Known about the structure:
- The chain has helices at 28-36, 39-43, 53-65, 94-97, 117-133, 147-155; strands at 9-12, 17-22, 69-75, 81-91, 99-108, 137-140.
- By secondary structure, the protein is α+β, with helices and mostly antiparallel strands.
Amino acid sequence: MIGTLDLPTxxxxxxxxxxLRRAHHGDLLPILELLADDPVSTSRGDEAFPxxxxxxxxxxxxxxxxxxxxxxxxxNPAGELMATMQLTRITGLTRRGATRLQIEAVRVSSNHxxxxxxxxxxxxxxxxxxxxxxxxxxxxxxxxxxxxAHRFYEQLxxxxxxxxxxxxxxxxxxxx
Length: 176
């Protein structure tokens, strides 16, 4: 687990109190459903097919054991999984040995978007998670197709500062 994150923790939106906690193996299907609920994710193959469950379970097991990563879920009082995100601690020599906190795979259920959930999650990252691990920089990437997400992150104070590049290795594609 990265740093000393105080989890589970309560997050408040304008209409409800929710719990942010570490994901566990029982969260796999709801997380996959969140990925499949997103058109950009499905265009990359994240469609929550039952035939892929074993592969995803293996990947989740490795992720949950990786001390540089946290896979988090946000649930309501009834236990419904409403959102997820992955945090990764990156240490490096640049920026005088700065620790970075990378935010990945932020997904909010389409039934709950525009309800303050994403803002509450990002505030927690900036105000609690980043200081807890000693990060001096919080970073994320966002697919170019996600123009509304870009506006959301900019409203939170994130600034576009770099141009990202990816190179897909066919032999290492995450398909089962």
